[in-house]
Amino acid sequence: MKRFWTEVTVTPGNGIALDGKPVRTPGRAPLEVPTAALAEAIAEEWRRVGEEVDPRTMQLTGLANAAIDRIAPDPEAFAAGLGAYGETDLLYYRAESPNELIERQEAAWDPLLDWARTRYDVHFEPARGVMHHPQPPATTLRLHEAVAALDPFRLAGMTPVVTVSGSLVAALALLEGGTDAESVWRAAHIDEDWQTEQWGEDELAGQVRATRRADFDAGMRFLSLL
């Protein structure tokens, strides 16, 4: 789609208007968000559009569209899918060797599990290797409940954070102020960084990582504006 508008404004209902006409989601619902700060950030994405619209550069708009069109009609079902990450969380599966990698994982991952133990009164059972190791049913249930309590917009913002990091526990800690974004990013890439140190960096892998980082940052910014 080519750019057809001149002026982008925020409406009184935290919606976006192009030359006075309201923007709608792909599902034809009004593109209206919970806060003026998020609406202004989305409006700025539309202002930065060049001659043609590139959705890849409008990640906040995309997350808002997802919240309205995909999540809001059935938030319980969406939350259940996101909550499933709590059953196979990255933080549960530890390396069997070498010791230096094991120590790095413990230093970055154990504090996140400790935070969740205190916050949700749950128990975790980390395992060595990559074979599935079930967690206590009460633990997975409590993590599911934490996700189900989120509104559609927070569910939308959490999605790239969870999927990129591979950790629901870390994403919940971020959302509730139990850690910071850089700590989670580093924790999520300990294994990858270890492999890079041993074998060198692959150019294609670097490009994929940059894309993941952009998605992760968009999710974090979206959540910070709610």
Describe the structure.
The chain has 226 residues and is mainly α. Helices cover 58% and strands 5% of the residues. It has helices at 36-47, 59-71, 75-83, 99-120, 137-148, 152-165, 168-175, 181-188, 190-199, 203-224; strands spanning 8-10, 16-18, 21-22, 93-94, 127-128. A hairpin with a 2-residue loop joins strand 2 (16-18) and strand 3 (21-22). Helix 4 (99-120) crosses helix 7, helix 6 crosses helix 7 (168-175) and helix 6 runs antiparallel to helix 10. The radius of gyration is 20 Å and the shape is globular. The chain starts with 7 loop residues before the first strand and ends with a helix.
Mean pLDDT across residues: 96
Q: Helix and strand string, N-terminal first?
A: EEEHHHEHEHHHHHH
User: So what's the overall shape?
Assistant: globular
**CA(first)-CA(last) distance:** 29 Å
User: What percent of the residues sit in helical stretches (DSSP H or I)?
Assistant: 55-70%
Tally of extended strands? 5
Largest sheet: 3 strands, antiparallel
Structural class: mainly alpha
Number of helices in the DSSP assignment: 10
Q: What value does the Rg take, in angstroms?
A: 20 Å
The unreliable regions are: none
Spatial order of strands in the largest sheet: 1-2-3
Beta-strand fraction estimate: 5-15%
In short:
The protein has helices spanning 36-47, 59-71, 75-83, 99-120, 137-148, 152-165, 168-175, 181-188, 190-199, 203-224; strands at residues 8-10, 16-18, 21-22, 93-94, 127-128.
Keywords:
single chain, 226 residues, mainly alpha
Topology diagram in text:
Elements: E1 8-10, E2 16-18, E3 21-22, H1 36-47, H2 59-71, H3 75-83, E4 93-94, H4 99-120, E5 127-128, H5 137-148, H6 152-165, H7 168-175, H8 181-188, H9 190-199, H10 203-224
Parallel strand pairs: 4-5
Antiparallel strand pairs: 1-2, 2-3
